TrEMBL record:
Belongs to the class I-like SAM-binding methyltransferase superfamily. C5-methyltransferase family. InterPro entries: C5-Methyltransferase (IPR050390), C5_DNA_meth_AS (IPR018117), C5_MeTfrase (IPR001525), C5_meth_CS (IPR031303), SAM-dependent_MTases_sf (IPR029063). It comes from the Bacteria. This is Cytosine-specific methyltransferase.
């Protein structure tokens, strides 16, 4: 656990933490994320593996208080610099019907309550782009008014940021609301630092470096079909990595990410993880092969990645209580198969030391639900500037957690955290899952 003796680093709390994409981005910007809250015990276990020195509270925001967050972490009575999180707002998703009074959106109100109880200097609320469209803007106004009546101010020129403009090889747009206490200066939104090669977005500086491409992200990864053992487990100890791009070098830990103030993790860079193979039928493989890059395969509706472009938005699918739908995984640009969890992680800007649940279903859900770390880092860096401190790189190398945490099923994970296994409804297993045509 990171204790309060490291007082040079500002402290943060992650609400709706998932596997930890935002936690990692804020850590990379220079924060110590001392407490994280997440209801799903599978996500909690993955978060604990990757951040074993932090405190994960496995429970709903509905049943949590600021006193509990402070007492069950090393925060105690210290002042919190930032609280961040993305309350699930499926009612605003562009995929759903965007029902204004969708009961699932009540989680936003509990997010606001916890921010007001914790009284941080700053807060960041991340959400889907759909929240900014049509009548849903009213909901943003309600959020802003609630904060303004309780000693906070919010940037009213709220922005939807695209991960592709912050070094992530994926088209992924998310709303970020930035706020602070009345006595402080509001943070700015981060300026774009990369531009996708095939973007025609007005206002993007043509002198910006190009966003890494799909092939920049994937080209050095070993071909999983060369490893028979990846049919049974998701890792290989000494894999044959190729020559990486600059982006690949950074994610492998061979060179450092620009202005990365995260804790170094102890791991073996020759190990390939999160790479369980998928069994595709011969017919599916033929269809994948004949689909042009950048197009959608007509029967499965899977998108085939363009190696010179960026990835389409990686989605999580839905939980069992919403139909247990597994989102379509993209097709690899050169091998007739769906991409692996590790390949999705590369397209999401997760470093290779970061591991996910050993099943493809949970692994893809954890990535698709998360904010790309480099996008979170860009936002967090603006909060660091507003706090007006110089971030420092810790000298300590942190161990990762116990690998068993990545192998729990839902009932094992629930038992480990001492919660009811029905907190997340069990998914109905089907004989063929949607991503194995």
């Amino acid at each position: 656990m990171i204790h309060s003796n490291n007082k040079e680093r500002p402290i943060a709390v992650d609400l709706f933490a998932g596997a930890g994409g935002m936690s990692l981005g804020f850590e990379q910007a220079g924060f110590d994320v001392l407490a994280s809250l997440e209801i799903d015990p599978i996500h909690c276990a993955t978060h604990e593996f990757n951040f074993p020195f932090s405190s994960i509270l496995c429970k709903s925001v509905v049943d949590t208080t600021a006193i509990e967050i402070r007492s069950k972490s090393s925060i105690g009575d210290r002042e919190i610099d930032v609280v961040f999180g993305g309350p699930p707002c499926q009612g605003f998703s562009l995929i759903g019907k965007r029902v204004f009074d969708d009961p699932r959106n009540s989680l936003v109100h509990h997010y606001i309550r916890l921010v007001l109880e914790l009284q941080p200097k700053y807060f960041v609320l991340e959400n889907v782009k759909g929240m900014t469209l049509g009548k849903h803007k009213e909901f943003i106004s309600i959020i802003i008014n609630k904060f303004e009546k309780n000693g906070y101010k919010v940037r009213k020129d709220y922005k939807v940021l695209n991960a592709a403009e912050y070094g992530v090889p994926q088209n992924r747009e998310r709303l970020f609301l930035l706020g602070c206490r009345q006595d402080l200066e509001l943070p700015n939104y981060p300026q774009a630092i990369t531009r996708p090669a095939k973007s025609n977005k007005a206002g993007l500086n043509n002198e910006l470096p190009l966003t890494p491409t799909v092939w920049d992200a994937l080209k050095d990864l070993p071909e999983i079909e060369n490893y028979i053992e990846l049919s049974e487990k998701d890792w290989v100890k000494e894999a044959d990595f190729g020559k990486p791009s600059n982006y690949g070098r950074q994610l492998r830990g061979l060179s450092s990410i620009d202005k990365d103030y995260s804790y170094e993790r102890k791991y073996d860079p020759r190990m390939l993880t999160s790479s369980l193979r998928t069994k595709h039928s011969l017919e599916s493989r033929h269809r994948f092969e004949s689909t042009p890059c950048g197009k959608t395969e007509p029967i499965s509706r899977f998108h085939k990645l363009d190696p010179e472009g960026i990835c389409n938005t990686l989605r999580a699918g839905t939980a069992s209580n919403r139909g247990a739908f597994t989102s379509a995984r993209p097709i690899h640009p050169f091998t007739p198969r769906c991409i692996t969890v590790r390949e999705a992680a590369r397209l999401h800007s997760y470093p290779d030391w970061f591991r996910f649940h050993t099943t493809k279903w949970h692994g893809f859900r954890q990535i698709g639900n998360s904010v790309p770390p480099l996008l979170a880092k860009a936002v967090a860096s603006e909060i660091i500037k507003a706090i007006d401190i110089k971030p420092i790189k810790p000298g300590v190398i942190q161990e990762l957690g116990n690998e068993n945490l990545l192998m729990f099923d839902m009932s094992q994970a629930a038992r480990y955290y001492g919660i009811n296994p029905q907190v997340i409804e069990p998914r109905a297993r089907k004989s063929r899952c949607a991503n194995t045509p």
